[in-house]
Amino acid sequence: MCGIVGYAGKRRAAPLLYAGLKRLEYRGYDSAGIATLAEKIEVKKCTGPVANLRAAVDLKGTCGIGHTRWATHGAPTAANAHPHVYGRFAVVHNGIIENDRALRKMCEARGESFSSETDSEVIAHLLERLYRGDLLEALKRVASVLEGSYALAVLCADEPGKIALAREKSPLVLGRGKLGNFLASDVPALVGACLEICPLRDGEFALITESEVTMSEGERFISPDWLPLERGRGESGKAGHAHYMEKEICEIPAALCRSRETASGAVFSRVREELCAAKNIRLVACGTAYHASLAAKYAFEKLARVPAEVTVASEFRYQDPILSENSAVIAVSQSGETADTLAAAKLAKERGAKVIAVVNEARSSLSALADETLPINAGREVCVAATKSYVAQLSVLYTLAASVAEAQGRRGYGDLLSELPSLARETVKAGRAVGGWAPHFAAARSAYFIGRGADAVTALEGSLKLKEVSYLPSEGYPAGELKHGTLALIEEGTPVVAVLTSQELAEKTMNAVHETRARGAKVFLVTSIPAYAGEKGLTGCVVIPPCTEVYSPALAAIPLQLLAYYVALARGCDPDKPRNLAKSVTVE
Ligand code: M6R
Fold first, then answer.
1. Structural domain count, the chain
2. Domain CATH code at residue 218
3. Which residues have CB under 6 Å of ligand 1?
4. Which protein residue's CA is at the shortest distance from atom 16 of ligand 1?
5. If residue 168 lies in a helix (H) or strand (E), which one and from where to where?
6. Are 171 and 186 in contact (CB under 8 A)?
7. CATH number (domain holding residue 476)
8. Do residues 388 and 504 share a domain?
9. Which atom of ligand 1 is nearest to the CA of 585?
């Protein structure tokens, strides 16, 4: 969730660290800090965005570490910002130390006082206590008493020019370039500075200096497996858009085109075979990726007539899932770093299941763990709210469902997917009209999204998007379920968005629309059936192009993403960086 960067080289570290943190800000943005080591450790911290740390670029030294925080333990104050310094050590940490209370008590009992409320500071205290003249060895000793998850980078005033690292259940990547050696929690921080990268695995340690990188697992030294860092992995700014969210919604047609490349590879064919042979298919994911999985379940069952079960990843391992070597588990994740999805995938592997990762970041922890990886190729997504990645996930999952259907003699569904990019282009255009709906939502106390069949999934995703970026309380509901309780919340002026793309279920959805209208709701319709656009009593309507009903969430989500964007603006919120959230949720 938080972002980590580090550098040991010939140049001044602080400006490079600052630039790296700017690129990682999407991982957390409540406070930030940099520590460099010249003659001594110097630290600068700030609350709020990385831009507030501008003054830190003056710090001296050619070796340093930086951090952008998403608070877990302790409020987003400067004291709680990393790096945490104690004695000779400065530490940046991502993850959660689960036995922090016991460790902190032990340190306090020795008379040590803490300057922050974080779980991370205890690591600096333990380092000071267990240091015997060798930074890396001290870090190994400390790691052996830590429980939980961590990506750690540590400076020691007694060992200038060195950074020691450790990884356990939280991503950490090494990078080397012309200017020296780098580390980061996430590859985007290294783009432009490094030519090669090497992701650390759980249980691995490393030590970097200006000229050397050493890696070890326990006492065993291992040689780094350097991979080229492709150019073009960075994002090209907002490209004239006011926000990344808007830009990324506009990129959906291109993302859909690229997502189709996944279907042509050998990996895809192997995955199809696995799925055809599997006795049960399970999908695990969180948030928006969970909604994509729900839509995929619908496609597997409707098109291929294969049962598929979807579980929120954070619940999966606590349900003691029934899995065997005949199970296929599809783990869906934009970042490939979501802790809950990783834990679910790990459990699935331990129980013998084949794990297939559907990810946007192909060099992620999830793909390293999975048996097979299907990239969605959406391109880098900067806005915390997932937009183009959702639609690209749908595209890859639909392609899979269609090809399993085809293997069973149900042909033709794959071809229909080729129309999606151009239909999405029309949808983005038509969807802009929802900008006119925004004032009705901006002034409301809550909003509701309803739909049936595949449209019920779109309702869930539309609601998540709206609350995430505009902070307007909202619920997504299967339209038929509304009258079993939630209808009680509809009052004069409550905005209700109805999604209607299924001819078969249209009248049933409209019944729910009438029921909410009768209670005073303002109803906004997103439909691919023009006949319903003229329905009496609608406050707003957007007609999107028709497509096969099963695939409709890929289009119907677009106006709802745009609606969330416009409502966020109308309510004065920054849609790219919603409060309390981070792009990649690497803690349980
Ligand atoms: O990287 P992931 O796809 O695994 O992330 C899962 C969720 O955290 C993510 O989809 C989240 O719900 C988004 N911010 C929603 O827009």
1. 3
2. 3.60.20.10
3. 286-289, 333-335, 338, 341, 384-386, 468, 584-585
4. 385
5. strand 163-168
6. yes
7. 3.40.50.10490
8. no
9. 8
Distance 336 CA to ligand 1 centre (A): 10
Which residue's C-alpha comes closest to atom 7 of ligand 1? 287
Amino acid at 543: V
Position in ligand 1 atom list of the atom nearest CA 465: 16
Q: Does residue 114 lie within any of the structural domains?
A: yes
Active site residue ranges: 2, 583
Together in a domain, 377 and 312 = yes
Amino acid in the structure at residue 223:
S
Chain centre distance of CA 543? 30
Same domain, 215 and 269: no
**Are 412 and 478 contained in the same domain?**
no
| Count of other CB atoms within 10 angstroms of residue 75 | 11
Boundary (domain end) residue, out of 202, 228, 254 = 228
Block residue for tokens 């003229």: 534
Question: Which of 27, 294, 335, 366 most suits a substitution to test ligand 1, by most atoms within 8 Å of the C-beta?
Answer: 335
Q: Which atom of ligand 1 is nearest to the CA of 387?
A: 16
Do residues 263 and 163 share a domain? no
Relative to the CA of 468, which ligand 1 atom is closest? 16
Provide the phi-psi class of 504: left if phi over 0, else alpha when psi is between -120 and 50, else beta. alpha
- The verdict on residue 424 lying in a domain is no
CA of 312 to the centre of ligand 1 (A): 12
Residue 388 Cα, ligand 1 centroid: separation in angstroms? Answer: 12
Å from CA of 416 to ligand 1 middle: 27
* Full pLDDT tens readout for the chain, 588 residues: 688 999 999 999 999 999 999 888 777 678 999 999 998 999 999 998 898 999 898 999 999 999 998 877 778 898 999 999 999 999 999 999 999 999 999 999 999 999 999 999 999 999 999 999 999 999 999 999 999 999 999 999 999 999 999 999 888 999 999 999 999 998 888 888 899 999 999 999 999 999 999 999 988 999 998 988 865 545 567 888 999 999 999 999 999 999 988 888 899 999 999 999 999 999 999 999 999 999 999 999 999 999 999 999 999 999 999 999 999 999 999 999 999 999 999 999 999 999 999 999 877 899 999 999 999 999 989 999 999 999 999 999 999 999 999 998 998 888 888 899 999 999 999 999 999 999 999 999 999 999 999 999 999 999 999 999 999 999 999 999 988 998 999 999 999 999 999 999 999 999 999 999 999 999 999 999 999 998 889 999 999 999 998 999 999 999 999 999 999 999 999 999 898 888 877 777
Whether 434 and 348 map to the same domain: the answer is no
Whether 371 and 436 map to the same domain: the answer is no
In angstroms, rounded to a whole number, what is the distance separating the alpha carbons of residues 120 and 126? 10
**What is the CA(584)–ligand 1 centre distance, in A?**
7
Residue to substitute in 244, 288, 563 for testing ligand 1 pocket (most ligand atoms within 8 angstroms of CB): 288
Which residue range is the domain that position 46 belongs to? 3-228
Contact indicator for 325, 277 with CB cutoff of 8 Å: no
